Amino acid sequence: MLEKTNAIVIPNSIDETVALLQRGGYVADRSLATVLYLSLKMKRPLFLEGEAGVGKTEIAKVLSDGLNRPLIRLQCYEGLDISSAVYEWNYSAQMIEIRLREAAGEKDRESISEELFSDRFLIKRPLMQALDSGKNGAPILLIDELDRTDEAFEAFLLEILSDFQITIPEIGTIRADEPPIVIITTNRTREIHDALKRRCLYHWVDYPDAEREMEILQSKVPGIGTQLSQEVVLYVQKLRQQELFKRPGVAETLDWATALIELDKLALDPQAISDTIGVLLKYQDDIAKIATSEGAAILKEVKSELGSHI
Description:
Elements lengths: L1 E4 L2 E4 L2 H10 L6 H13 L3 E4 L6 H12 L3 E5 L6 H4 L1 E3 L1 H13 L5 H8 L5 E3 L1 H4 L10 E5 L6 H13 L1 E4 L3 E4 L5 E6 L7 H4 L3 E4 L5 H11 L5 H14 L10 H13 L7 H11 L3 H7 L2 H14 L4
Parallel strand pairs: 3-10, 3-11, 4-7, 7-10
Antiparallel strand pairs: 1-2, 5-6, 8-9
Helix pairs in contact: 1-2, 10-11, 10-12, 11-15, 12-13
């Protein structure tokens, strides 16, 4: 059963963690469920690394639904700064307040300054929002694609991940009554500093094997037929073995299967692949490569292994 600790309802075992993920439609292997369980129990951030489209972000969404907590997402990008990630002052509202007080004849600068730098004029961004606990406990904080930011912002996160507090010069230090559940993802376009990784539990999220990808496909696309699902999974599995600029992730597998169903396809054929390959592959060089004899050879292998016919 679920254990309630400090207003956080969390799974009480690895098996319950697996069940929590499954209820949210997430098919996880036991190693992922184990590190997620430990992250929740130890109240440590979970650092998920892996290729794009393997399901890292989805874990935070499933946790939000399964634990009935708000999901606060910080989407990282190059140039992300404190005003966008943490807080900023509502300068327009502050200027209006100054004008109103001047018009009313108020001249006490200390009183005006104290009012201007208060919660009333503070715009809270994702990292600060995550320090506020709601009625159901601390929120889920998703720091998505951290590798897109620069090292300066990465260093700023250390204070938050160490002590779950933020220092605002005009106000002071704001601490979380209860630490948020933190999920950090990276696509490994650059290395993240060891100082930040030490504050987290780590897991590499890899592409699923054929069996698990079949489970995911049948869970997310329940209307798909047996032959089409088997051929789609095996084709994608073989495609990932090719030298491609961007191998398709699970997200692309699901999109491709859905597209084929929309076209009323019951099995793969050369024309179906040609018509929908842009759903599966996102770079022209990769598409051009599979459009040649290599793509036909992969389809022939798939049909042969499954005993199907083109």
